[in-house]
UniProtKB/TrEMBL annotation:
GO cellular component: plasma membrane
Domain ABC transmembrane type-1: 88-296, 393-587
Presence of keyword Transcription regulation: no
UniProt keyword annotations, A-Z: Cell inner membrane, Cell membrane, Membrane, Transmembrane, Transmembrane helix, Transport
Pfam families: BPD_transp_1
Name by which UniProt lists this protein: Putative ABC-type iron transport system protein
């Protein structure tokens, strides 16, 4: 009897595992373990391994043998201040400063749009997220165009041309401009999260506080703020992780004056072939991100309830600002002008300058757009005559398209399995694994993939230096977007539709193709658009992985930055912005019935 019962349970288990969603779950689990968990394990292993670079300091040691040399060198050696402590402190300063400014801007804008009668709220809501479509380092390039001084030689910026005096170093380079430029890009995270939370807070709770004699400030601190605390925590975590792992802005505004953060120090270490120290610094970034999430969860976990919606209807009352609403609208428009219009205008002006630093009308030229080598500049032709830029633009487009398609497929499969096995351990594990790439700072993730794919893995050849590796890492990094949108879309589809088709004898592939995908297409296209935009403007993730043959526009622009060619920097950056906006419009026209992006 016991043997028969055991055999029955085994058959039932086998039958359950043979269902399509279970088979897909197994495949996805193996894939994500290989692409997310294995690289992290490899990164940790490499920090305990003697690298070829280390043999100059460890005579007699064989490359590949065990060592704690990197930990001693980075954390307690005579070079530790330059290698770790100064970049670590600089990262904390810029990350916390930018996060506080992001929350201030995002929360203020969310309150204005959700809780006040500011004019044209729908238009304002759309315009506020426009900076997210631009590369994070566009503001840094524009800042340098305006405030660059003569400390590094070369041309000075617009400030010098207008006022005839050099701006101080602390305004041109370093912590302050890095914090400001990062905040004016990443405030969108705080705005989106907090505006969604504020819409669910019943204004009757605040009215009850007013009746009890609480001031408006006390209503906010005692009622509204505690209820949106989870959203505030999410905004802090998402912003901090993005900012602390950002490479482009600190590289543009910090590296020229040797103001290193952890991402730029990782780039410098690996660029000088000191990969062991670079991997250890990347591991520090990962630990910082995980620790920050854990602290946020512990802080939120001490409260028992954050309920804002119950069986009763939620009433959201807007605050009448009176005539001041037009002043508030003007301030919002001014912010958008400063974060979008002014940076693009400065880069356009730079791209039209014959001689850098001279902004007189007589100095304008179209050479850096259409000119050939030797006409105005003996070394550099214009954008549309420059094979390096055109090749990089094509690489950017095909990389973004490949990543969007790949993440669309993977995101749909993850969403399907998570929703169809909802409540099971497999569902929770897969959902967590698909989100894990988000917590890895981008430059650290790039370092992880160098460590893993720089050598063959079984029958798979080494991928370092190939276009396939760029597609792979960008797809994995963007998977959290498409997996979340896939889960959200599939939760809205009643499984009875699929069950009805199964009773008609329709196979799983046909059911998915004819029923599930069409119904979930809106959410899937939204996630794919986010992946496309994110890949087009990505620099931090791929800066360690690109080669001359796989260069994309973002990496070419950074190369021109190090070569100090400001006109081509401006022109190539504007080309990238035009491509992002153009493809965004094209997506919306082709899928006009889908809710794409942040609409």
């Amino acid at each position: 009897m016991t043997a028969r019962a055991g055999a029955g349970r085994l058959r039932r288990f086998g039958a359950a595992m043979m269902t399509p969603e279970r088979l897909v779950a197994v495949v996805l689990a193996v894939l994500l373990a290989f692409l997310v968990l294995a690289p992290l394990a490899e990164l940790i292993r490499e920090t305990f391994t003697v690298q070829p670079y280390d043999r100059a300091y460890l005579p007699g040691e064989e490359a590949g043998s065990f060592t704690t040399f990197h930990y001693e060198r980075v954390f307690s050696g005579r070079m530790s201040a330059a290698l770790f402590y100064k970049p670590f402190v600089n990262s904390l300063i810029t990350a916390f400063g930018a996060t506080v400014l992001c929350l201030t801007l995002g929360a203020s804008l969310a309150w204005v749009v959700v809780r006040t009668n500011v004019p044209f709220r729908e238009a304002v809501n759309t315009m506020i997220v426009v900076p997210y479509m631009l590369p994070s380092w566009v503001m840094a390039l524009a800042w340098l165009t305006f405030f660059k001084n003569d400390r590094l030689g070369g041309s000075s910026g617009v400030f010098v041309y207008l006022f005839g005096m050099q701006p101080p170093d602390w305004l041109a380079f370093g912590a302050l401009p890095i914090v400001i430029c990062l905040a004016f890009h990443y405030y969108v995270y705080a705005y989106l999260i907090l505006s969604g939370a504020l819409t669910t807070v019943d204004s009757q709770l605040e009215e009850a506080g007013a009746i009890a004699g609480l001031s408006r400030f006390r209503q906010f601190t005692a009622i509204t703020l505690p209820l949106v605390l989870p959203a505030l925590g999410s905004a802090v975590v998402m912003t901090f992780i993005r900012v602390v792992g950002s490479f482009g802005t600190p590289a543009v505004l910090g590296m020229p004056v040797r103001y290193f953060t952890l991402p730029t120090q990782i780039y410098a270490a690996i660029g000088s072939r000191n990969v062991g120290d670079g991997y250890l610094l990347a591991l520090v970034l990962v630990v910082m991100a995980v620790l920050f999430i854990w602290i946020n969860q512990r802080m939120i976990g001490v409260r028992k309830s954050f309920v804002t919606m119950s069986g009763k209807g939620v009433r959201s009352k807007t605050i009448d600002l009176g005539p001041a609403r037009w002043l508030v609208l003007g301030l919002v428009v001014l912010l958008l002008a400063f974060t979008v219009i002014l940076p693009i205008g400065l880069l356009l002006l730079e791209s039209l300058s014959r001689t850098a630093g001279d902004y007189d009308l007589s100095n304008l030229t179209l050479h850096y757009w259409f000119g050939e080598r030797g006409e105005v500049n003996a070394l550099y032709p214009g954008v549309f005559q420059n094979p390096q830029i055109l090749g990089a633009a094509w690489n950017s487009i095909r990389l973004a398209l490949c990543v969007a398609l790949l993440t669309g497929v993977l995101g749909f499969l993850v969403g399907y399995v998570v929703v169809r096995t909802r409540g099971s351990m497999a569902s929770k594990t897969l959902e967590t694994a698909a989100f894990l790439p988000y917590i890895f700072p981008s430059v650290a993730f790039g370092a992880i993939y160098i460590g893993m794919f720089s050598k063959p893995i079984g029958p798979m050849p080494a991928l370092y230096g190939t276009f396939a590796l760029l597609v792979l890492i960008a797809a994995v990094k963007n998977l959290p977007y498409t997996s979340r949108t896939g889960i959200a879309a599939l939760l809205q589809i009643d499984k009875s539709l699929e069950e009805a088709a199964r009773t008609q004898g329709i196979g799983w592939v046909a059911r998915v193709r004819r029923i599930v995908i069409p119904l979930a297409s809106n959410g899937l296209m939204s996630g794919m658009l986010l992946s496309f935009i994110g890949t087009m403007r990505e620099l931090s993730l791929i800066i360690l992985l690109v080669t001359p043959s796989t260069a994309v526009l973002a990496s070419v622009i950074y190369t021109y930055q190090t070569d100090d060619v400001p006109q081509l920097i401006g022109a190539a950056t504007l080309l990238l912005v035009l491509l992002i906006i153009g493809f965004n419009i094209l997506f919306r026209l082709v899928f006009r019935n889908a809710k794409l992006g942040f609409a």
